[in-house]
Amino acid sequence: MPSKAAEAFVSCLLAWLIPGGGHFYLGKRKRALVFFLVIVATFSLGVANDGRSYLMDRQQPLTYLATFTNIATGPLELISRQATYHTLTYSIPADENDPVAVQLVERMRQKVRSVTDEYGTTYLLAAGLMNILLILDAFDISIGRKD
Questions:
Q1: I want to staple 46 with a disulfide (CB 3.0 to 4.6 A). Which of 27, 65, 113, 123 is the partner?
Q2: Tens digits of per-residue pLDDT, 55-104?
Q3: Cα–Cα distance measured from residue 110 to residue 60, given in angstroms and rounded to the nearest whole number
Q4: Could you tell me if 56 and 63 are in contact, meaning their C-beta atoms sit under 8 angstroms apart?
Q5: Facing residues of 91 across strands?
């Protein structure tokens, strides 16, 4: 039997990789399925409504938190990032005249012009926040703090 620390690490890692994966690993199969469906549905609504993944911007410190929240959905996040920027990037280059920075800002503007962008972006952030809670819940179960 693995130690509590190892079990906690594995459950948290699985919870990040696959929403509900940590609960599945811990034997909470029905709960895991429900969590998986809720996170994937919320994430899918975000992508379908032109939600955009955040980029870290030195001039806007809160973008670091939003980017972290996007990353909390695990590998699913790669889908929304690719849909938004057509590349896997996480920050805007410091030089505003850099062609990459110009291209990223233009792709972001295209998403913002969508009528449903704010709803989609909110769904993506909600999926990330819910998955953070699921990771913490899997941790609590694995260390015996919660049933």
A1: 123
A2: 998 889 999 999 999 999 999 999 999 999 988 999 988 888 899 989 99
A3: 20
A4: yes
A5: 56
**Sign of CA pseudo-dihedral 139, 144, 146, 147:** positive
Evaluate if pTM is beyond 0.85.
Answer: yes
Return d(Cα 70, Cα 124) in angstroms, integer.
Answer: 7
Nearest to 134 by CA among 26, 25, 23: 23
Q: Which two tokens stand for residue 45?
A: 């609504």
| Structure tokens given for 116 | 């449903």
DSSP 42-103: HHHHHHHTT-----BBTTBTHHHHHHHHHHTTGGGHHHHHHHHHSS---B--S-TTSHHHHH
